[in-house]
Structures are given as structure tokens and as C-alpha cells.
Amino acid sequence: MLTGGSPTTPPTSPSPSPSPSTPPANTNLLAGRTLTETSHADVYSVSRANDGDPNSYWESANNAFPQSLGADLGSQTTVSRLVLRLPAGWGARTETLSVLTSTDGNTWSTAKASAGYGFDPATGNTVTVAFPAASARHLRVTFTGNTGWPAAQLSDIQAYAS
User: Fold this and answer.
1) Using an 8 Å Cβ cutoff, are 81 and 128 in contact?
2) Which of 79, 117, 125, 129 has its CA 20 to 30 A from that of 86?
3) Cα separation, 50 vs 31, whole angstroms
4) Strand 156-160 with 67-85, pairing
5) Residue-wise pLDDT tens for the chain (162 aa)?
6) Distance separating alpha carbons of residues 69 and 41, to the nearest angstrom
């Protein structure tokens, strides 16, 4: 009998350690990060987009597209997916947005070109924006439209390596 296996299976070897720049796929890269914004309406500041409360939300200035929110990831890391949410009870809408990444906060690359994303209360008002893996320290989401209100709106934003 082989050590660590059965007579028909080879021994197992330990899994390779992930690269320091590639966090586990299920780690929200924006957890605990301070977000930045181009504007906000009334008390709906960008800190509400990652405060853990699904009913609070960020809302940009009304009738003033484009609007952006951004984050410093703290170090160069791989990012390839965003999960965006609106409060569950809100009506269906489409928000048009693009995703930009940067290694230095000055020069930006388009990770995901502008497209409309449908938020539907029947599916939890959650959308996933996937794009080719990018090495970035900074992340920016730029909104250019919203069919439900004349401003950008999000109750939660999360970023993942895969």
C-alpha cells in the first residue's frame, strides 16, 4: 500500500501556497477599506456602500452623471470580479457603469467597458461584474446612468480575485 493513499490512488501532496498577490477567491478585497466618491446626495455618503448594512446606500448627486466611487486596495493585488447590491426592496433598474483599475492611482486602465447591469428585486437586487484578472492597487467604478433614479446608487460593493 502506498503511504497517504489507497492501493489504487497515489499519495497526495500538499497544495501549493497561493501567491502573496493573489488572495483567496472568497476574500472581499474591499472589506474595511475606505471608499472615495465624486459626490453624494444628502446623507447618502459612500461609506454606506460597504458598511455591512444592506438597507443603507450611497447615492451620488442627482442629475450629474458621470459619477464614481473608488478604493485603494492597500497593495497590488489581483481583482477580477465585483458584486454590487441595492436594497432588496427597491424596484428593478439598470445602472450603466464601467470598471477601471490602476497600479498607482494616476494612470487608469479599463477592466470592464461601460455596460448596463440589471438589478432585479426577484433575484436580490445583486449583480456580478466579471472581467479579466487585473493586477491593481486602485479600483474605480464609474456610473453613467440609472433607469430608476437620476443618480448612481449602491448599498454594497465587494471585490474579489476570482
Assistant:
1) yes
2) 79
3) 7
4) antiparallel
5) 434 444 444 444 444 433 444 555 689 999 999 999 999 999 999 999 999 899 999 999 999 999 999 999 999 999 999 999 999 999 999 999 999 999 999 999 999 999 999 999 999 999 999 999 999 999 999 999 999 999 999 999 999 998
6) 13
